[in-house]
Amino acid sequence: MDEFISVMKALSDPGRVRIIKLLQGHRLCAREIQRVLGLAQPTVSSHLKILEYAGFIEKKRQGSRMIFSLSDGSQSVYVETMLVELYQWLDDDELLTDMRRSLAEVTTPLRCSENN
Predict the structure, then answer these.
(1) Which element (helix H / strand E) includes 29?
(2) Sheet holding 65-70, edge to edge
(3) Angle 62-65-67 (CA atoms, 0-180°, nearest 5)?
(4) What pLDDT score was predicted for residue 26?
(5) Which of 41, 54, 84, 89 could form a disulfide linkage to 10, CB 3.0–4.6 angstroms apart?
(6) Mapped to the 3 state alphabet, what secondary structure does 47-110 carry?
(7) pTM of the predicted model, to two decimals?
(8) What distance in Å separates the CA atoms of residue 64 and residue 81, rounded to the nearest whole number?
(9) What backbone phi and psi angles, to 5 degrees, belong to 61?
(10) By C-alpha distance, which of 40, 7, 17 is closest to 99?
């Protein structure tokens, strides 16, 4: 039950759902996520910690930065199920479409990761 509640709590905030949707097909650093979402750095860091704890995302050090990506969900049937469903959900959401467009417009010097 605790694992299920952790997963549901992680998805209970629109900012965290947006982060998951942004990470579909991308590896991003906190700075890129912060810029696209327009949230303060401490808020983004808090969201990322909650998503990591629940098993939705993984992080990897790249130089001085932490790069975040979606996990494969294999650690939890709840995370795996929600990631599969989230790939299909919200694709017509205008705010998410604008955020993806904004992500594509982040200038090269501000990019934190390679091979996006």
Answers:
(1) strand 28-29
(2) 28-29, 65-70, 57-62
(3) 70
(4) 85
(5) 54
(6) HHHHHHHHCCEEEEEECCEEEEEECCCCCCHHHHHHHHHHHHCCCCCHHHHHHHHHHHCCCHHH
(7) 0.85
(8) 33
(9) -75, 135
(10) 17
The pLDDT averaged over each successive group of 10 residues in the chain (116 residues) is 92 95 90 91 96 95 91 90 90 81 62 53
Measured CA angle at 36 (ends 83, 100), to 5 deg: 55
H/E segment holding residue 46: helix 41-54
Class of domain 2-102: mainly alpha
Tokens of 109: 């010097």
